[in-house]
Amino acid sequence: MAENENASQQQEPQDQQAEQQQDQQQPELKDRHGQPAISKGKYERDLGERDKTIAELRSQLDALTEQAGKAEQALADVDALRTQLADEKLDHALELAGCVNPKAAKAVLDDYAGDVARLREACPYLFQTPKQTGSTGARPGGAPDSALESRLDRAFGLKRKK
Fold first, then answer.
1. DSSP 3-state of 133
2. pTM
3. I need a labelling partner for 121 at 20 to 30 A (CA). Which of 6, 13, 56, 134 fits?
4. 8 Å CB contact between 6 and 13
5. Is residue 108 part of a domain?
6. What is the tally of structural domains in the chain?
């Protein structure tokens, strides 16, 4: 089978060479106006080559158009993800600052060049005040009174583990 392929590949260049020699050996033909005549075989062969070239270029164009469409879609996806990430970062910054109404804060944030600290100073009503943490100094209502407990333990005869 490989021998048949090699033989056909060798025969093709020989056929082309034979056609070129025939074209060179034929005398120059003239049409009725005195212009060089066109060989019908050469004309059809040239048209076939042109059609083949056009088909190859169209297939390449289709492949490149498809790739360009995919690239544009990928760029649009990247832009959408970047926008989403920036929005999430802004939401997080507003949440950390204690924003009560993020939608309203986003609407006026452009007036403060995106600076959440400046927005907080200018519009304190958009943010909640930080809750006081730690002890108030008073005893919690549910804390046991040690004197009362020790009297009750003695009354009921319970021993308390310390």
1. coil
2. 0.45
3. 134
4. no
5. no
6. 1
